[in-house]
Structure formats: C-alpha cells, structure tokens
Amino acid sequence: MTQGNQISLENVLKRCGDFRRYQWIHYIFLNLIAISTSLNAYYYVFGVAEPPFRCRLPLTTSSDEDQFQSINMTHQLFIDNRQSSTTCCETINRTTCTDFMYDRSVFGKTFTEEANLICTHAVKRTWLATVLQIGA
Predict the structure, then answer these.
(1) Are residues 57 and 103 both part of a single domain?
(2) Do 97 and 53 reside in the same domain of the chain?
(3) 99 is in which domain, residue-wise?
(4) What's the number of domains the chain is made of?
(5) Which of 61, 74, 43, 47 lies closest to 100, judged by CA?
(6) Residue 10: which H helix or E strand, with range?
(7) What is the pTM of this model?
C-alpha cells in the first residue's frame, strides 16, 4: 500500500472534501436543533417556576404594590391572621383567594405569576410542560 492509499481520517477527509460551505451549513443546522431544544428546557425551569405566594391583603389591593415580605411585625401578624394554615389558596374564613402576592426575590416575574398557574390552576403547568416537551 502506498502512502496515499492508506485508510486514515486525513485521507478520508481529503477524498470527501474539506470543511467548506456544505459542511458548514450542515454543522449550523445540526447545532440549531440542539440549541433550540435546550432553550425550551431552560424556559420551563425559569418561566413556569412556582415562586412562594400568599393571598393579597385587602388593604393592599393596588396593582403596583408588589411587596411580598412583611414591612414590620404588625404587618406579619396581620398576614398570619388572614392566611389559612392548611392551604395558601384560602383565607382564614375559608374564602378562596382571587389575588395573590408573589415573592420575586429569586425568579423575578414568571409566567406562573402572569397566568395565575397556582392553586386550582396548578395542573395547567403540568400540561404546559407536556406540550413543551412534545413540541421540542
């Protein structure tokens, strides 16, 4: 066997052609598939995360007030007296909460907060994950 007829990776690449336009196009499209799939997975982790939440107090019903943490001890006692100890979705007198305050210290504003995917609507987050994985 002569030097030019040996089977090696270099000789195969020379025979098939160098890394030119055709190979670059395939390389880019194959990487786009992996990148778009990973972006979908990361979106679910941060976009549909369930941050800590509580019922919005009746005195703080303005939509621009987004403070989840209590201001002082009196405010914390008022929150504790209004919240049910068994569920976060009801007040102490067993009425269902319609408006919630979310803790934005970890995630910021999430899709869960925007679409209210908590309490009775929490199952929709599971469906969203299923549809996202089917589409990815």
Answers:
(1) yes
(2) yes
(3) 48-135
(4) 2
(5) 61
(6) helix 9-16
(7) 0.55
